[in-house]
Amino acid sequence: MENIFQRTGDPFIDAGGMALEYISEQFPEKSIDELIEWAAKIYVEKWRAKIDAIFLNSSITHNSKQGAEKVTATISKFKEIKNSSNNEGYCRFCGKEAFLTDAGRDQTCLAGSKAFVNFHHSHESGIMICPECAEKYFFLPFAVLQMGNLCLLQTITEEGNEYWKHKTVQENLNRISRGSSETILKSKFTRASNAIFHFASELITACDYKLESEHITMYHFTNFSSSVDCKISTIPNPVFRFINLVLKTSAREWYNFIYRNYHIGGAKWNDETDRWEKKGEPVEEDEYRNHTNSIFNSLLEGKSILPSLVRYSKKQLIKEKTIDSRIAIYYVQEVKGMTSEQISLIKSVGGRIFEIMQQENNFKKYMVKLEGATKAYQLRTAILNIIKKNYTTGNERTIVTFDEWVNYLFPDGQYWGEIRDLLLVFLYEKLHSGRIKIDIDDVEQINEPLEENEGI
Ligand SMILES: [Zn+2]
């Protein structure tokens, strides 16, 4: 039998279909016409018809009709669509051959409207869709969250779909049955770039860290009047796998790192208490949740978070707190595509450099050279000098062989700054585990050149 709920790839119709499928399972005795009436009554009676940001000037939201008239007009509209014998063709969403309706912004989001026919390929008066897709779309309000504008999450796995269904449609039905549903569900987030990572983390923990194939897209949109808008954020699969690994093994360290990287106006970071404070009082999560977070933004924009990880590791060292290099390892492995051979070699080079520092009992000299390298040749020179030192000191073991240097330490196509940053995180971890203190003045000298990304 044909599955009318099969996904089409359009996030809006698929979310509406997901909502209708779940709701129809909860009310198996109701026909589709009765389900439309049920939904229309929720929109009108419980939500006071405030779904304009989804359906503009529709039978529900247009103010030419009031109360029960809105419900009656909606039922009539769907009967008309179903009984039409005009516009035979193929549905733009599901591809099925049917008598199509020209859905404008009263029935679909961001789809153009009759005043803007050039939006559509053949200047149709709306997007041409089949009656079943029109019905599915009507249930979209149950599958979105209010987040300033509206938020819709598109996932590619069944687990992701179940997560979003639980968070939106099921929650709506629970509230409706308790009599506490008054509007489209509200999220505690207003900043989409933070919310998408919160959703990803919830999904990862709900799947017990076993979900690896996910790829998440968030549509932060409104179909309202002339302010129509849609911002799209994506957590691609490599970033999703990275977050999955850090939450599985280093969740506490990860959240510490994230916490430090909010930008909270009027607040100061307290190194003693490890928290954001305003006049000595902690800034609570309700307040900082919607502030800019530079790590989330970097991950969404494809910018490296390694310089931030180096700075964080250094501050942890100064505070004599644990440093967990696994976050940096997972990042270069999953997101930057660094091979395990390369990671092992950089780790081993870090270990050998640390031994030389210990032999000389001079940590500052080498750290300044390595961390201060802002160009590829400076990093190469710093490492070559250490290799030379190793040789002249009479150490039998070499730091790196010629083949390792060419194939793994500085291979073609790998950005040299990533090697420097990973090496530094390893060294900071070593310094911490060796309980080596570097005084603040020394560290401050090597503080800021990390932002530079010059060179090859
Ligand atoms: Zn269709």
Describe this structure in words.
- The structure is a single chain.
- Among the domains are: 1-143, no CATH class; 342-456, no CATH class.
- It has a four-stranded antiparallel β-sheet with strand order 5-6-7-8, with helices on both faces. Strands 9-10-11 form a three-stranded antiparallel β-sheet, with no helix packed on it. The protein has a two-stranded antiparallel sheet with strand order 1-2.
- It is built from 17 helices and eleven strands.
- It has 456 residues and is α+β, with helices and mostly antiparallel strands.
- The chain has helices at residues 11-26, 32-46, 68-83, 131-137, 158-178, 192-206, 237-260, 285-288, 294-301, 306-318, 326-335, 340-360, 364-371, 376-392, 402-409, 416-433, 440-445; strands spanning 88-90, 97-99, 101-103, 127-129, 145-147, 149-154, 216-222, 229-235, 268-270, 275-278, 281-282.
- The protein binds zinc ion.
- Residues 91, 93-94, 96, 129-130, 132-133 line the site of zinc ion (ZN).
User: Which small-molecule ligands are present, each listed once?
Assistant: zinc ion
How much strand content do the residues show?
Answer: 5-15%
Count of strand segments: 11
Q: Whole-number radius of gyration?
A: 28 Å
Relative helix content: 40-55%
On the 0 to 100 scale, the average pLDDT is: 90
**Cα shape:** elongated
- Give helix and strand order, one letter per element, not per position: HHHEEEEHEEHHEEHEEEHHHHHHHHHH
Count of helical stretches: 17
Task: Please summarize the sheet with the most strands.
Answer: 4 strands, antiparallel
